[in-house]
Design goal:
Elements: H1 2-17, H2 21-32, H3 37-44, H4 50-89, H5 108-123, E1 126-127, E2 133-134, H6 136-139, H7 150-153, E3 158-159, E4 175-176, H8 182-190, E5 195-204, E6 215-225, H9 230-245, E7 252-259, E8 262-274, E9 279-281, E10 286-296, H10 298-303, E11 312-319, H11 320-328, H12 341-347
Parallel strand pairs: 1-5
Antiparallel strand pairs: 2-4, 3-4, 5-6, 6-11, 7-8, 8-9, 8-10, 10-11
This protein binds 3,4-dihydroxyphenylalanine.
3,4-dihydroxyphenylalanine binds near residues 179, 220, 262 and 316.
């Protein structure tokens, strides 16, 4: 009896101090395995007198149950500890940067897009978006460019093919928009004046060299109200170029020009310094053309369903990619669309530097690139 009690204490102690599952299993085998202590004791029961056999047998059974319970309890403790240890070494920090790149980059065109929207947004302009595939009414006719108008030839238009069973008719076919100016008409069709929108987006022309790509980006601007004048146009665009180039002063001049959809029409030049290696905006004796603009032609207002005797307004169109090249010193437009990650790493922007008029357009605390 005493033997059994001390055996029990010792075994329970062993179980409770087993350091891992393997050690625990060894203890189990040594106690309850084929040749285990308890098994041997049970085997020894056979030689005992009946009464003693019954009594000792009971005790041994109780002991067995106690051991099993202790073993299970310890097993659970050890398994939990092992799992926790494993989990601790296998944690994945999902906030760690991906490799090999430390972070993604914002494409210069997206950056300029954000900047332009921030500037005009603060002036109270809304952003309007329209389709890349355009009908000729919106892309040409409504903009005072009827079929055979010479200005159509200037635009190197991509015409879309008809379905196989239709004859191709250039005048009826859809185009991929050659400029964002069609958005002037789409806006007039859906909004009542006063109108103040910018329409940034993709545009397409069959052209390819260092400063032209078949797909490029423009932003269109349109303001229509009863008393909008050319003075508003000049003030608005002057504020825009100053904000965009982040300069307090910048020489500008409006040169008379021609666009079918504006009358009078002008081009805006900004003062710059051109050297063999550099182009510095904001000072110097040279001029650089940066956008086309003018007072919306009465025919265009009419085509958009607006009475030109009651309303007037101004419009402008800017090449976004060209602005990006100028502002960030990128020499070749074609590289914009080659999807080269090395280029993007060099010319791209941190996604965390969001452009805003209050927080900074291109440079939020010097962390731009
Ligand atoms: N649509 C013209 C182009 O692609 C740019 C332009 C010029 C837009 C004058 C205008 C404007 O709204 O008034 O070359």
């Amino acid at each position: 009896m005493e033997d059994l009690e001390s055996l029990k204490t010792q075994i329970i102690n062993n179980i409770n101090s087993a350091l891992d599952i393997k050690a625990l299993e060894e203890i189990r085998v040594s106690v309850m395995g084929k040749k285990g202590i308890l098994t041997e004791q049970m085997k020894g029961l056979g030689v005992l007198p009946l009464e003693q056999k019954i009594e000792t047998g009971k005790k041994l059974n109780v002991l067995k149950a106690e051991f099993e319970q202790a073993l299970n309890a310890r097993k659970e403790v050890l398994e939990t500890a092992e799992l926790n240890k494993k989990l601790a070494t296998e944690t994945i920090d999902v906030t760690l940067p991906v490799r090999p790149e430390t972070q993604g980059r914002i494409h210069p065109v997206s950056k300029i897009y954000e900047e332009v929207v921030a500037i005009f947004g603060q002036m109270g302009f809304e952003v309007a978006e329209g389709p890349d595939i355009e009908d000729q009414f919106h892309n040409f006719n409504a903009l005072n460019m009827p079929p055979n108008h010479p200005a159509r030839q200037m635009q190197d238009t991509f015409y879309l093919p008809h379905s196989a069973n239709e004859d191709f008719d250039m005048d009826k076919s859809y185009v991929i928009r050659t400029h964002t100016s069609g958005m002037q008409i789409r806006t007039m069709e859906t909004k009542k004046p006063p109108i103040r929108i910018i329409a940034p987006g993709r545009t397409y022309r069959s052209d390819y060299d260092a400063t032209h790509t078949p797909m490029f980006h423009q932003v269109e601007g349109l303001v229509i109200d009863k008393t909008t004048t050319m003075a508003h146009l000049k003030g608005c665009l002057y504020d825009f170029v100053k904000a965009f180039f982040e300069l307090d002063e910048i020489p500008v001049r409006y040169r008379p020009s021609y666009f079918p959809f504006t009358e009078p029409s002008a081009e805006l030049d900004i003062g710059c310094l051109k050297t063999k290696t550099e182009l510095k905006v904001g000072a110097g004796n040279d001029w650089l053309e940066i956008l086309g603009c003018g007072m919306v032609h009465p025919n265009v207002l009419k085509a958009g369903g607006i009475d030109p005797d009651e309303y007037q307004g101004f419009a402008f169109g800017v090449g976004l990619d060209r602005l990006a090249m100028l502002k960030y010193g990128i020499p070749d437009l074609r590289t914009f669309f080659e999807s080269d990650v090395r280029w993007l790493k060099n010319y791209g922007f941190s996604p965390l530097d969001f452009s805003s008029m209050t927080g900074g357009l291109s440079n939020n605390g010097g962390q731009t690139r």
